Amino acid sequence: MSAPTAVMKKADALRLKLRHHNHQYHVLDEPEIPDAEYDRLVRELQALEAAHPDLVTPESPTQRVGAEPVAAFGTVQHRLPMLSLDNAFSETELRDFHRRVTERLELDASTELEYSAEPKLDGAAVSLLYEQGKLVRGATRGDGTRGEDITHNVRTIEAVPLQLMGKHFPASLEVRGEVFMPRAGFAAFNAAAVKKGEKTFVNPRNAAAGSLRQLDPKLTAERPLDIYVYSVGSVEGGTIPDRHSDVLERLREWGLKVCPERKVVEGIDACLAYYEDIGRKRDQLAYDIDGVVYKVNSIEQQETLGFVSRAPRWAIAHKFPAQEELTVVRDIEFQVGRTGAVTPVARLEPVFVGGVTVSNATLHNMDELHRKDVRVGDTVIVRRAGDVIPEVVKIVPDRRPKGTRQVKAPAKCPICGSKVVREEGESVARCTGGLFCAAQRVEALKHFVSRRALDIDGLGSKLIEQLVELDRIGTPADLFDLTKEELIELERMGEKSATNLLASIEASKSTTLSRFLYALGIREVGEATASSLASHYGKLEAVMRADEEALQQVPDVGPVVASRISAFFAEKHNQDVVRKLQDSGVTWEEFEPKPDSGGGKLAGMTFVLTGTLSRMTRNAAKDSIQALGGKVAGSVSNKTDFLVAGDKAGSKLTKAQNLGIEVLTEEALEKLLGDQ
Ligand code: 5U1
């Protein structure tokens, strides 16, 4: 029976949409919708085609792997089709896959079948052909049968060997893998593109695909690309091992890069445990992944299982929850932060993304808002990766309703009505209200009491908001004359919590100069700078008296930071707060800095700590390094001298290795600290 007209129309409409999005994604490297939405459209069409097989046409997007090769590149005929992978979006779908596999292999479903598991990289699939060990061709997947010849471009990727190592490789060997742009490289690339007013990429995957398809290989060579290979294609004049995991090992011996997170697992429960484990590590990896892949490890069993139209029956991609989703912008509002920064925020139709429901996403600043041209009513892609604040990646232009308008920057602060100004060269506009602005007061107080500042336990956001609302607290100094009587009047505050809070306020009075300076919330003065200032000057008075030129002698303080510090202490109201805090009993130990202050055997050296340290806490390590004049920074850069890597070190370690920075074990650090 043929499909009813309405179903045919629906299928036609879906095909048209998918064709359009396929072209955007594969040919232009400019996806308009997130993968999750694309997958949903494919599934919708697959369901229609499954219910009405007469609807299937050879041209249907469900019947092929990728996009047509682009004529500008030469075309390459793959010796064996480059397949894609079926997806499992849930445990049930994964168990169904395992059941199908065991049934076809005539095994019991409880068989602990061996799978080779690895992360599924979010990059661009490539085929590399080696003849007599020499790289002779690189190609994109294209439509799976024919790809684009990108030999000149893959040759620029340092991690792609131009000559295989050893002697025992097949005379002709085709390997397949994923070219990707590590996150750090992607962020740097996009930041540079914004600066130059050039096109940015939506995500590292598109950046990798776009870089590979440059007509000028010099441009590809400038992109920070990397590769992991994950399988072999055609093999002639030689043999390969009969387990997939051993094939990967062999590829590694021949000089090709394979993913270090790969693992052989036995049985479907072990697959699930691997999925959970990689899911936990995901944010620490140096590259984007969107799931894990399991492959039946025995090549003989793979051959028995064979293929369906576009994917092998012996492998599956187990996807993580999408990190990008589509939703609609209900409103665009402006938030005021601790430093007065006025940030546009999109209020969204709530959407489940990256494992949580998101209803707000940052638009960063007015330049970003205008660059992305986000308007109320727009359909947008939101992204939430790990703990990162959700952000609007881009709008979907053809879903824009009529009559939308660009949002203008507010001239007045939405909280206190003070003027909002944007200094020259700054991307951020700021409210000029200072502590007069309740938003800045609340945020400044939250910062003041936070764990790494004065560490006042029991003074949460709600309580601070109440105290500011009641106009009881104008500056942090007012915290120190709160009484039990007034505290118990507050909402959700019993006698016991009031007593505990007062005790914790009392305890916070004894602090360190470094914490105190950090707590003041001076713009650009983070923990590391506060600590440099404290060890350089030893006394608060000296910091307050220092002029900009003198401040720049402090390690880590440049002209901008120096001007912020000097401007802060020049304000009468800030001097008053500092005095009042001291009058309230806030104290720290002061010391006479050594004449060659900043001395100490680690002076001038910058350390970054990463991973879990087992012999000392991170703070203890930090304190010891600083005590010897060293600096501890939060992120790896070319200014880093040493990376101290504990257990489970992740992306910082990779970055340090890429930058050629010396990596110390915890033991080596102890030795360095101990050797006098
Ligand atoms: N890690 C990994 N990604 N990936 C993608 N393995 C893997 N295998 C693939 C694809 C398309 O295809 C197999 C059929 C070899």
Q: Provide the CATH architecture of the largest domain.
A: 2-Layer Sandwich
Kindly report the average pLDDT value: 89
Largest sheet features: 7 strands, antiparallel
Q: Would you identify the CATH H-level superfamily of the largest domain?
A: DNA ligase/mRNA capping enzyme
Share of β-strand residues? 15-25%
List all distinct small molecules, including ions and cofactors, that are bound in this structure: ligand 5U1
Quantity of strands, as a count = 24
CATH topology of the largest domain: D-amino Acid Aminotransferase, Chain A, domain 1
Query: Can you tell me the CATH class of the largest domain?
Result: Alpha Beta
- The oligomerization state is single chain
N/C terminus separation: 88 Å
The helix content is: 25-40%
Which value, in Å, is the CA radius of gyration?
A: 29 Å
SS-derived structural category: alpha+beta
Secondary structure tally, helices: 24
Tally of distinct domains = 6
Low-confidence stretches: none
Shape descriptor: globular
Question: What order do the helices and strands come in, and which of them pair?
Answer:
Layout: H1 5-27, H2 35-51, E1 75-77, E2 87-88, H3 91-104, E3 114-121, E4 124-131, E5 134-140, E6 146-148, H4 151-154, E7 172-180, H5 183-196, H6 204-212, H7 217-221, E8 226-236, H8 244-253, E9 263-266, H9 268-281, E10 289-296, H10 299-305, E11 315-319, E12 324-336, E13 341-353, E14 356-362, H11 366-372, E15 379-383, E16 391-395, E17 420-421, E18 429-431, H12 438-449, H13 461-469, H14 484-488, H15 495-508, E19 510-511, H16 513-519, H17 527-537, H18 540-545, H19 548-551, H20 559-570, H21 572-583, E20 587-588, E21 606-610, H22 618-627, E22 631-633, E23 642-645, H23 651-659, E24 662-664, H24 666-674
Parallel strand pairs: 2-11, 19-20, 21-22, 21-23, 23-24
Antiparallel strand pairs: 1-6, 3-9, 3-10, 4-5, 4-7, 7-8, 10-11, 12-13, 12-15, 13-14, 13-18, 15-16, 17-18
Helix pairs in contact: 1-2, 12-13, 16-17
The structure holds ligand 5U1.
